[in-house]
Design brief:
Blueprint: H1 11-26, E1 34-37, E2 43-46, E3 50-56, H2 68-84, E4 89-94, H3 103-111, H4 117-132, H5 138-152, H6 161-170, H7 173-180, H8 188-196, E5 198-201, H9 209-227, H10 236-252, E6 258-260, H11 261-269, H12 271-280, H13 284-304, H14 311-332, H15 334-338, E7 342-343, H16 350-366, E8 374-375, E9 385-387, E10 392-398, H17 401-405, H18 407-420, E11 432-436, H19 449-452, H20 459-471, E12 473-476, H21 490-496
Parallel strand pairs: 3-4, 4-5, 7-10, 10-11, 11-12
Antiparallel strand pairs: 1-2, 1-6, 2-3, 8-9, 9-10
Helix pairs in contact: 1-9, 1-10, 1-14, 2-4, 4-7, 4-8, 10-13, 13-14, 14-16
Length: 508
């Protein structure tokens, strides 16, 4: 592996895809085998019988039987089992160990040792009830219960309605069963079969999700070496990316739901032909490969420049941004999402977009206040990024060197870009536009905009658009980065939380 093992790679978005790649290589000796993503589970593996895998990541140090993600997964597994009566297995994987209180509960479950099977039957039904609390007809009964509960506990400051409702049901077998499944809960005998088809994978110690990614990649490489000894070591990564690309294709192709073992053998057998096609293709897998390599180079550079103490904070933001970026690409496509961040380009230029996220990571590491969580999704107006404890803004760059170096060209490019993409139609009019350029767009005289935005045939829209473009607050990233060499500005100091800006006083 590399220097950093890409420890801070794009983890969350494609973690399930990496599991799918490993699982497919792992069943390569089953000619009719296949693996799918988002097929009744995060990952569905079939080598005769199905294996349904759900992966749950936690920021906490442990998980318990009452965690919502676990209950929700069991609810989904139950509905699939009820509908299909599958003989396959259901697997729940976590990156953290079990809480001490529930350790024996889950270990006995994995070992098939049920000294008191009623405890597990009740647990399954409780999971189902929790999921039904917001759904009719259980919701109606729950609302009536809350009214009665308040009447009986008038002085309770924070009533635990959910827990109290569940406890009230346990002593009423029929009502418990109804609230667990109003359409008719499975018999206890069927539930016992279901329980025996569930198993859990959990580490003995907390695992960072990025470390989990590295382990997956290492496991896949070992399996490739074992299953396909003819493969050269230099080909491992490319084969992994080509398999990953096949899975990504299934997420956008309504006719394909899985990747087969036969396809895997085709990738290995026809490597020379397929790698050429892969390299010629504009694919998300290639973008992931570029970003993984860039992360390694970036971390080396930070170490070399003496910023080792900042690395953890910087890369946390960079990777949160990158993960959400790929999520948005998965939803809306590369062209639409990348146009939010990149002007003057007919190609994706993922590294340039990634540079924007680096700038955000660097300002985050320099800030004297907690900027909060970063989010790229569901922003209003032209905004495409937000720190929860700061505000939303528009972050954009250009592939043109002239635009990078000249303030007027930067503004002209921004105007043309937002009109071409029609983003100006969604503008709020008060956005802060932060450009990653070499020039100082903050010094641009906005009076020039009247001459730049002119449509004689449409005077009303011209006036509206002129007002929008003049209302935007244009800033650059020059003073936000680690290498600003001490040069700063009022805006950068405000962003960092050490000064006021525009009449706004920073709360540190």
């Amino acid at each position: 592996m590399s220097l950093t093992d890409v420890k801070h790679s794009i983890a969350g978005f494609y973690y399930q895809l990496l599991i799918a790649v490993r699982e497919l290589v792992g069943i390569s000796e089953f000619p009719n085998g296949y693996v799918g993503v988002e097929c009744d589970a995060d990952v569905r593996v079939n080598k005769g019988d199905d294996l349904f895998i759900e992966v749950k990541f936690y920021k906490a140090n442990s998980f318990s039987r009452n965690d919502d993600p676990i209950r929700h997964t069991i609810y989904n597994f139950y509905n699939h089992f009820k509908k299909t009566k599958t003989t396959g297995l259901f697997n729940i994987r976590t990156n953290v160990p079990i809480s001490k209180n529930d350790k024996l509960f889950f270990e006995n479950w994995n070992n098939g040792f049920f000294a008191n099977i009623d405890e597990y039957l009740i647990y399954i039904k409780n999971c189902l009830v929790y999921e039904n609390l917001s759904k009719k007809p259980v919701k109606e009964r729950f609302e009536l219960f809350k009214i009665q509960y308040d009447s009986n506990h008038p002085d309770m400051m924070k009533p635990q309605y959910n827990t109290a409702f569940i406890k009230s049901l346990v002593n009423d077998r029929n009502e418990h069963s109804f609230c667990a499944d109003p359409n008719g809960v499975l018999s206890d005998e069927d539930l016992k079969v279901f329980i025996n088809q569930i198993f859990f994978n959990f580490p003995s110690l907390n695992e960072d999700k990025y470390d989990s990614v590295i382990k997956l990649k290492d496991d896949t490489e070992k399996l490739l070496k074992e299953k396909f000894p003819e493969i050269e070591a230099r080909q491992y990564d490319n084969i992994r990316y080509m398999i990953l690309d096949s899975f990504l294709d299934t997420t956008v192709d309504g006719k394909r739901t899985h990747v087969t073992v036969e396809e895997l053998h085709g990738i290995v057998r026809d490597y020379d032909v397929r790698i050429k096609l892969y390299l010629e293709k504009q694919s998300l897998a290639k973008t992931i490969a570029e970003i993984e390599a860039e992360i390694i180079r970036y971390e080396r550079l930070l170490q070399k420049k003496g910023y080792s103490d900042n690395i953890q904070h910087i890369l946390r933001v960079v990777n949160d941004c990158t993960e959400q970026w790929f999520q948005e690409i998965g939803r809306f496509g590369q062209d639409k999402v990348n146009s939010r961040y990149l002007m003057d380009a007919e190609h994706p230029y993922p590294i340039m977009i990634h540079d924007l996220f680096k700038a955000m990571g660097e300002i985050y590491s320099l800030a004297e206040r907690n900027l909060g969580e970063v989010s790229l999704t569901e922003q209003e107006g032209l905004n495409n990024i937000k720190f929860s404890n700061y505000k939303a803004f528009s972050l954009i760059t250009s592939a043109s060197r002239i635009v990078q170096e000249d303030e007027s060209s930067s503004i002209i490019s921004f105007i043309r870009h937002t009109q071409k993409t029609k983003e100006i139609n969604q503008a709020l009019g008060n956005e802060t536009i932060i450009m990653d350029v070499a020039c100082e767009v903050c010094k641009f005289d906005k009076k020039e905009i009247d001459d730049l935005v002119l449509d004689i045939g449409n005077p009303i829209d011209t006036v509206i658009n002129q007002s929008y473009y003049k209302a935007f607050d244009y800033k650059c990233t020059k003073c936000l980065k680690l290498n600003s060499n001490g040069i700063t500005c009022e805006f950068a100091e405000y962003f960092k939380g050490v000064a006021s800006y525009g009449g706004i006083v920073t709360v540190t």
